[in-house]
Structure formats: structure tokens, C-alpha cells
## 1
Amino acid sequence: MDTLYIAMTGANALQERQTVVANNLANANTSGFRAEIAQTRALPVYGSGAGLPTRVYTATTDESWDFQSGPIVHTGRALDVAVNGKGWIAVQGPDGKEAYTRDGNLQVNGQGILETATGHPVLGVNGLPISLPPMTGLTIGSNGAISGVPQGNQPNGLLVINQIKLVNPPESTLRKGADGLFQTADQQPAPEDPNVVLESGALEGSNVNPIQSMIQMLQDSRQFEMQTKLIQTIDQDRTAANQVLVVS
């Protein structure tokens, strides 16, 4: 039964890793997406009495992510911004708390709120959602400063309206939610970082490597088959052993 349990833990870990890899592959074209890393480790199994472990079983570890930057694609669109290097764009999560994204595909909704393509309001340096008046010639600077000409003003009446909050908390403190946004582990707002740089008229692509992900899926599928065959073999051996006991 111990052997059967160990084989089952291996199959279960592979199935969980397949789910992670499949999700990464599905987001290979999602702007600013950070690939999740599925990690497992071997833990010793001790017998009922004292002594050394005679076998190991597989366990999944805490979630982790690949924070390597994705490729920057130039779009020429004024509201597209890409974080060049380390850093994050601060947005308001569904729970109302501050969260972070690398998806710089921004837009202005009907109420004048600057938000991401998925509808999360972008936060200013004051920690509040950015509200913009009707304006023309809207531009976003490398430091997140939003400037433009309010409607009715002279073309040379360029004004700085607000500034996007850019942060760079330690990656070890970040956790990813089901909504795809990152938050600090204690959910406290990270301080503004003036060293974070935006590239206007561009978007950062996903850092998922589709070819590597496909290879990983094939390898995991073969290993899962091996684990299920091992489970079947263990079951057959147990049945044969029971038959021997009945005959004897």
C-alpha cells in the first residue's frame, strides 16, 4: 500500500504540473504574463518504527513564477506602455486593494478612468484611480507622467494631468491571485519607485516559451503514463499475492 501511495503522489504531481504548463501555454500571447513554475520535491517516508526512511514520495512546493521580462513589441499606440526592465504598474484589484501588473494595454473608459484592458483602474502616485478629463494629444512619459491638451485649450496648452504609480517590490514578496494580478504577501501597498521606466507606444509580451512548454507537456504525459502503469502493476501484484494466500 505504501508503494501504491507513492506512485499515486507522483502521478498527482505530474497532473498538477500539466495544469500549470497548459495555463502558461494558453497565455503565451497575453501581454505582460508571467509564467508559473511548477516545482516538486521528494520527501522521505519513515516506517511505523524508528529507523531510516526506506522510500520517498512526491510533494508539490509553494507557487513560484518566472519574473524574466518578455519581449517588447512596438505598437505606436499612445496608451500602450511597457515596463522596461524591473518594475510594475499599480492598479486597483477587484478587492479594492492595490495590485500590480505588467500589462500596459491601457484605455480610458466612459467615466474617464484610466484602466487596463481587463478593466482594472490604474492608480496614480496618490494611490487613487486616475481620472482624466476629455483631452487630446494624450501621452505617457517614461516616468508615468500623463500629459495632454484638455479640450477647449490651445494646442500649446499641454498639461501634466496625473502620474502612474510605478513600483518595484522584492519579487520574493509577490503572490499572484486568480485574477492574474500580483500583490505583496501582506497586501500592503508598495512604495513608488522612481527608477522604474516605461516605454511608450509599446507592449511587453508574455515570457512564456511556447516550444519549451510543449516539450514539457510531452515529457509530463510520458511520465504520467509510467506512473499509471506502475499503479496497475502494483495492483496486479497485490491481486496475485492474495490468490497465492487463498490457495495456501
## 2
Amino acid sequence: MTALIAAWLAHLLAAASPGPAILLAARTGVTQGFRTGFWLCLGLAIGALVWAMAALFGLAALFRIAPTLLWAFKLAGAGFLIWIAVQMWRHARDPLELPAAGIAVPQSADAAFRLGLFAQLANPKPAIFFGAVFVAAVPPGTAPLLVTALLAGVFANELICTLAVARAFSLAAPRRAYQRFKTVIDRAFGGALAALGAKLATT
């Protein structure tokens, strides 16, 4: 139980640290509001859960055995993150009418969910993280109930951390600041995502 709690805390720190999930949650919250941000964050959380389950079933070990497969996953994931970054950069100067309270936002819930899910699955590093942590924290023969509780904790960590960011950035003051400095902020977000994509491809 102590090891499982340690694994949960390690993932909580990882989920709260800056990365593609946090950046996308912040930008979605500020541009499209909390409702759309919720669906993006749900996709991010399910993506993290998929990687955690994959690690439990040995995907991280497979990556160690077949590094070419990991390399291919990294390149594909890096390409996806850089593509998102390029779109942000290209459209940074486009005017944006931020939605008022109660008015539908331009991006659908389905689209936001898919973006969150695909962005999370595009980064194979969580599989390596979960693999390393679970090797120490989940010994063979661990009760299924405890494994389920750990997976539920991973899902909750990811959802709560990204939702907190999306909510904070959906408030009036951050949204007004975004509207005023949209070009600079979008290019900063795009540059950060591109840098993360490049780091993913080269590490």
C-alpha cells in the first residue's frame, strides 16, 4: 500500500508539471472556456489511463526490448505536437471573438476530447514513466482492487490537474489578457509545444 501511494504521488507531481497536457488545457480554457476545456481534459485523462494500463501490461518493457518501436512512437508523437504548434503560430494573428457566458464555443466537445486524447497518446514518455514506477510499486500478485485503485488515482490526477489549469485560464481576467496579447501568447504556446515535440524526438 505504501508503494502504491508513492506511485500515485509521483504521478501527481508529473501531472502537475508543465508539459503538452498543461499547455493545451491552458490554451483551451482561455480561448474556448471551461466547458470545452473539460472535454479536452477528459481526453487527456483517458490518454494517461491508457498509457498506465499499457505499462501494466508490459508496453514499457516492449519499448526497452525494441527501441526502434519507441523511436517510431517518439517521431510520430513529436510530429503531432509540432503540427499543433505550427497551427498555433500560423493563426496567431487571426482575430478571435471570445465566447460570452452561456454562448456555445466554436470547438465541439467531440473535437476537444479527440485533441486531448490524441495529444496524450502522441507522447510515449508516460508509458516509460509508468513502466518505471509500476515496476517498483506494483509487485506481481498485487490484488486487482489495489491495481484498479492506482489506475483510478492516475485518471483523477490527470483530470484534476488539467481541469484546474483550464478553469484558471477560463476566468475573465486571463481571457481579457489573452484577447489583448493573442499573437504573443499563441506564439509562446506554439513555441513551447514545438520545443517539447523536438525534445521528445531527440531524447
## 3
Amino acid sequence: MIRKGKAAVFVGPARPMEIREYPVVSPDDAGVLMQLVHSGICGTDIHILEGSLPIPPQFIPGHEFIGRVIETGPNARTDAASW
């Protein structure tokens, strides 16, 4: 069975975000698959939605989040310091 996940997609300034479904793939190499637990909105996200930043549509914003690691690639490390 193909796993699927949802994402809020920026489709253009002053337009509502669209919720779309995408296939979820297993991480490769040092990648990590995370399940989103909580997400924040930062000022940059607001500027993108208002059209103040030249971001093309079909962009999935977000860089402030808390997640749960559910799968790791074969070369994934415990953290950025290799602990």
C-alpha cells in the first residue's frame, strides 16, 4: 500500500492555501521521515502569503515544526553532532 500525507501548498499571493495529498516515500541515505506533531507560522510565511517575497506557486512552506521520527535512512545519524 502506498502511504500518503497531506501538505498545505502555497498557490499564489492572497489566495488560500490548498491542502493536497502526496505519496510518502521512505528516506534514502541519511534522510529522516518525520510525522508532524506541531507547526508554527513565522513572519516569512506571512510575507510569502501576502506576496511580499517572490516565491513561485506550488511551494510547501514551513520550517518551524516539531515532529516524531518514524523512519530513518541507512546512514542517518542520531543528530547533527553525530551523537
## 4
Amino acid sequence: MIDIVFATGNRHKLREVQEIIGPDFRLRTPDEFGITEEIPETQDTLEGNALQKAEYINKKCGLPCFADDTGLFTDALGGEPGIYSARYAGEGKNASDNIKKLLANLKGKTNRKAHFRTVIAYVDADRKELFEGRVDGVILDTLSGEGGFGYDPVFYPDRYDGKYSFAELSPAHKNEISHRGEAVRKFAAFLRSNR
């Protein structure tokens, strides 16, 4: 089993990614190495933020490391919330606050098209690699479903026959079609071919 550090404190993400990567790789987290400070995320692109986080943790612990950055981009709002998706409603706010702000900003808009993008950056002693996933869909007017996290209750993916929000899908179904699932599968294929 190969240890890789995932630069996240989000247990939902950790579980999703471990399920896709499989048992050959053991995902470790920064807190296992005593890294409890906020990981820097000051770039203006998903690629830049993911790479910044992976490099930061790699330097701290010396193990192969990866980080992801994900954004929800809405057509009608010029791409908002984009790279600010996790803190759209402001510092100290939660996912529910972010959804409320998004729905308020979309009120009266007929164009509900949106997409999620995830970028994974991998860093080890010899290389830096990027992997991307994307899923298109629309933003619902109201929340639908109890599962998932983040914007899942208001995101209706095009890829799943138009009947369910991400929050209504099982984790396995969500992983099959999601932006993160796509990026992680590309990353997992890279890991397996470079063992």
C-alpha cells in the first residue's frame, strides 16, 4: 500500500476520493502530520489553488501529495461563485449560507445553466501533474435531496438522465458522473501506471 497525503480537512471529499482510488493507495491527511494551520489558497484559478495547496503540504511532510480545488460556475452570474464557491457568502459562513446567496442572486434569471470543475494537482519529488473533471447541469430553484454536501442539493447534473440532484444520488452514482469523480479517475489511472 502506498501512502499519499490528500491536502484536505474535508471528510466528505476524503471518503469520496478513497472510494475511487481504491485500496492500493492509503490516503493520509495533513492533521496526521501535525499540520493543522489553514492551507494557503490565494491564487486566482482552480489550477493555481490546487497546486499551491499540494506544494505547501508536500514541503511540510515530504510525501507525495495531492490537492483539489473545485468551483461551481454559473452562466447567468458571469461564472460566480467560481473559485470562491466554498466561501461565497463570506468568511465563517457555511454551505447553507452559500446556497442561499446563490439562489438569491439567481432569482428571476431564466438561464440556470452551470457547471462544476475540479482540478487535482499532484506533487512528488520528481514531478507536478494536473487532472481535471467537469460536469454540466442547471441550478434548481429550491433544495432537493438530503445527501451530498456543498451545492449538491441545488445542482441538477445533465449526465444523470435529468431526474435527480447530486444530493439525491447515492455516493456511488455521484462518483460515476461528478466532476470530482472524473478528475480522481484520471488521477487514479496516473497513479496506477506510475507505481
